[in-house]
């Protein structure tokens, strides 16, 4: 007869310390190999098959090359996810079987043979398939011009995946042990064993979830913020305060150099002088104006914006030929290649104004305050637009906008619709715009029939053009020339392998349109296929690598693209000879 203690101990509950000691004359302890084999045989077959499928699927082609350890991390995560899905399915099937009183049996010898064959096949697939997949990894690295992975790549990624799985399984076992421990204590006061286990499980989930939320997550966020604040206070590359009064942090500035932040210092401390522009274009040039104001605990976002406007007035930015409002990323990053393209092409007769609104990196800033970038984008643009419109007609500067990544998301948020953007601007350049940007999504959705998500055509390119490379600025993806580019002109630069552009939570369970379309051969997208859960994690992993590839790929938009793009937006020939300008920008920002 089973005791209550035995019931609580199953399937591994608390067992008292008073159990009988092992018999000293009992059978010898099994060997390590036999113990390992016994454990392997106990692994549920169906979840194991799904776990191996998840592991192998993670190694299929994606947008960008990944180092072996990152590939192993993604493979391990996906193997665990598919294993958990397998466990859920198996549990549901067992529940249905009990409910319907359906039973199925198999000869023990056949079952043993089938199990051995299955394990061997899974082991072979796990070890051989990544080696075969090296061909795909070679193609992706060749596309971006990086060295091909070495022959040890599959070994390193497989071992990393194994470590990841071991860590998570260990965590799961620790939580399961905690549930059993709590069950033992609850069982002393609750009559029914199932009720005791349910209460113990709920209590454990609540406590563990609370610890994760209040201690781990908040602790990590606090550590990330502390690190971000420290990085924000640093001086990149030994930059020194500007000596020009036309730059924030310089002589007469309303903000101090030390208050500007790391990305602000990079923006203010970079950029061409009038002499450098003159040397590149062989024409007289002006000293460009750059305005940057950083976030400060002692002032609100509105006060930060007002200070930026005051700086724009102080430097005489409204007297220039063109004013560019850049919505930066959270920390104040501005694409230097795009900014310098604007300044060189307009011979320095420019003013660029932007502001920082957080010290957190873009990903964390987006998670914590998703509405802040569009709020800041609208706030700053409206204030500058108001000052521009107040200038006497005929002396009023032209008004442009720009931004990259989170900055493009925020900058697009300054407008209610594409028509609103065209009515308020003389032009704009958006680079690496995330797919969750409302205006970008609206334009893509309403593209010309027959054009693709990757290279959408909008009204035959009359005002707005999407381009993955320079030729797409002048013609659609089929090579058909666009109509003349009429003012106001807006360009969205988006690489076909930029994961920031294509990432979306919907990748978890639905096929994106950009993977349903006919794709250009021999590109990363041409090798990809959508798989549930897999593609989401692959593209998520690609995002971490998006700034680790050469310019012109991933999330890196350099002078060879930004100069022609800004030239077209400004009404200049897209295919003009800008080699000297590009060379000057590249020399200052080799990337």
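^ Assign residues to that structure.
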């Amino acid at each position: 007869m089973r005791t209550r203690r035995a019931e609580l101990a199953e399937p591994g509950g608390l067992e008292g310390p008073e159990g009988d000691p092992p018999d000293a004359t009992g059978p010898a302890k099994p060997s390590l190999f036999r113990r390992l084999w016994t454990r392997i045989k106990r692994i549920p077959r169906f979840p194991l098959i799904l776990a191996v499928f998840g592991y192998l699927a993670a190694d299929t082609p994606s947008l960008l090359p990944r180092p072996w350890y990152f590939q192993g991390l993604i493979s391990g995560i996906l193997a665990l996810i598919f294993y958990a899905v397998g466990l859920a399915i198996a549990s549901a099937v067992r529940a249905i079987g009990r409910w319907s009183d359906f039973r199925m049996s198999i000869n023990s010898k056949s079952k043993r043979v089938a199990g051995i064959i299955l394990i061997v096949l899974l082991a072979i697939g796990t070890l051989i398939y990544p080696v075969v997949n090296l061909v795909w990894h070679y193609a992706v690295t060749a596309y971006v011009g990086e060295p091909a992975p070495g022959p040890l790549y599959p070994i390193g990624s497989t071992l990393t995946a194994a470590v990841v799985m071991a860590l998570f399984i260990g965590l799961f076992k620790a939580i399961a042990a905690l549930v059993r421990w709590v069950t033992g204590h609850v069982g002393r006061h609750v009559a029914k064993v199932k009720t005791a286990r349910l209460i113990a499980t709920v209590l454990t989930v609540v406590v563990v979830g609370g610890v994760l939320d209040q201690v781990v997550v908040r602790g990590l966020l606090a550590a990330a913020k502390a690190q971000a604040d420290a990085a924000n206070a640093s001086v990149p590359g030994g930059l020194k305060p500007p000596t020009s009064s036309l730059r924030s942090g310089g002589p007469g500035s309303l903000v101090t150099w030390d208050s500007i932040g790391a990305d602000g210092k990079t923006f203010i401390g970079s950029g061409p002088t009038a002499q450098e522009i003159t040397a590149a274009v062989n024409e007289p040039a002006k000293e460009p104006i750059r305005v940057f104001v950083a976030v400060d605990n002692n002032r609100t976002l509105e006060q930060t914006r007002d200070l930026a406007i005051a700086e724009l007035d102080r430097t005489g930015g409204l007297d220039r030929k063109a004013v560019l409002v850049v919505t930066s990323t959270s920390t104040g990053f501005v694409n230097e290649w795009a900014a310098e393209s604007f300044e060189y092409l307009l011979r320095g007769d420019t003013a660029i104004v932007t502001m920082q609104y957080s010290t957190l990196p873009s990903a964390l800033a987006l998670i914590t305050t998703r509405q802040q970038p569009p709020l800041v984008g609208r706030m700053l643009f409206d204030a500058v637009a108001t000052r521009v419109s107040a200038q006497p007609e005929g002396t009023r500067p032209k008004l442009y906008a720009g931004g990259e990544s989170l900055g493009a998301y925020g900058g697009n948020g300054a407008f209610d619709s594409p028509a609103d953007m065209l009515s308020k601007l003389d032009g704009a350049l958006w680079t690496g715009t995330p797919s969750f940007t409302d205006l970008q999504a609206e334009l893509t959705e309403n593209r010309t029939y027959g054009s693709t998500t990757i290279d959408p055509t909008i009204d035959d390119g009359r005002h707005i053009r999407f381009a993955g490379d320079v030729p797409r600025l002048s013609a659609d993806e089929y090579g058909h020339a666009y109509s003349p580019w009429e003012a106001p002109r807006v360009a969205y630069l988006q690489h076909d392998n930029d994961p920031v552009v294509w990432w979306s939570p919907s990748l978890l369970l639905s096929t994106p349109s950009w993977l349903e379309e006919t794709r250009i051969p021999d590109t990363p997208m041409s090798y990809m296929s959508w798989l549930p859960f897999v593609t989401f994690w692959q593209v998520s992993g690609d995002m971490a690598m998006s700034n680790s590839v050469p310019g012109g790929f991933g999330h890196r938009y350099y002078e060879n693209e930004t100069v022609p793009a800004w030239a077209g937006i400004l009404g200049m020939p897209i295919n003009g000879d800008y080699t000297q300008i590009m060379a000057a920008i590249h020399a200052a920002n080799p990337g």
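Residues 361 and 404 are 14 Å apart (CA to CA).
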